Amino acid sequence: MGTELLTPLDLAFWHLESDAHPMHLGALAVFSPAPAPAPGVTAEAVVELLGTRAAAIPRLRMRVRDVLLPVGGAAWSADADFDVYRHVQRVQLPADEADAGDDGFMAGATRLAGELMEQPLERGLPPWQMYVISGAGNGPFAVLVKLHHALADGMRAVAIGAGIFDEIASVGARARSGAGSRRVRPVPPRSWMPGPRQVAGFALGRIEDLSRAFGVGASVVRASRLDLRGAPSLAATSSGTRRLATADLDAEAVRRIRRFAGGTTNDVLIGVVAGALRRWMLERGEQLPGADPRALVPVSRRRPGAGAAHGNRLSAYLLGLPVSESDPWQRLRAVRTAMDRNKAAGPLRGAGAVAVLADQLPSLAHRFGAPLAGSAARMLFDVLVTSVPLPRSALSLGGCPLRAVYPMAPLARGQSLAIALATYGGQVQIGLVADGKAVPDLERLARCAEDELRELLALLPIVRPSRRS
Question: What does the pLDDT look like over 410-425, one tens digit per residue?
């Protein structure tokens, strides 16, 4: 893989980062021991296996370097000193957590993953990290994956991370083996010094981009709030700490509710999030906000089959989470109405299209304007709620079945909570990321999400099968 310029949106994510606001996304993948009679797999063997497979993924060998043109830009280039074991490491849980059964292991792995998510990725290296979190012996283990948002959006992160699994790595190995028998044509070196036609084309492209940016920017500005008063639990001065929590929802129960309430599965899940936030605020003794908190819901603009070279391809929808509504079904209807309105406007012109705006701006604007843009996030939204698509087939690592995957989103500056959801193995798995000092009771919010789904399920009318004549 040769040198490749960062797209404007990738560059925005790269420059938005600070020590207190690392811009990596991640996932905590939990594995069960290999079923008998397969031999147990040690943590050291998992580290070795992960290292071998990660090293075979070209994208994970790339680092970011500054370039002269475009001014303020940066490019991906191969790391000549790449050492995969600077990126793949083992972390062992303390004995009291490692020996406390599955629940104790999960609690310990989640706590430790929160501490590891606090740490920014080293910027001089390829911006990713994997940690094998294990207890003693050959029990369950977890793999925490951290990828900088400049490296991948949610869909691209899944495509990159999938290469570590047995089923996908074996396909990739066969493909590489077949490619090795074919003649590979050399690629001539590419110069970043533009010729006259390139300069003219670049200038015309900038004019067109700025024209599009003006239209998108107008809708973003119209959606901005000057009054930042909202839910105290969703806004915080960053402490630089991170706390994680997880929740599991039955995917079939979600589908049953969708069939009754209408809309999409994602509408139901956003409704569950709204209900969980309401429960959580009331349990904390917190007064419900006068204006419903606003959620930013990312939307992928990636075309099927698009390669990794396309970088982040995102827009977003913006909607109020109806936490002030006491009726669960009315909350679902409100979410569905808001999402229908967003879809009618489209992801390129809606109020949440701040990522599209970022993709239209020149490199220099991101280099110097990122701190200001990061501080403005609170003017647009209060919480990120994102869904990450996962493969539907069963996956394993070293013969150990994948039990669950909890996705994790980065926190915007001035915000204390981000929520990510993924469906795997008949469960919707929720990863909650919070500022550790602002939200010390994050586990309570996770339980509120599970309670909200149970209440919706209990309120479903009983449909008895009709008798056959």
Answer: 988 888 999 999 999 9
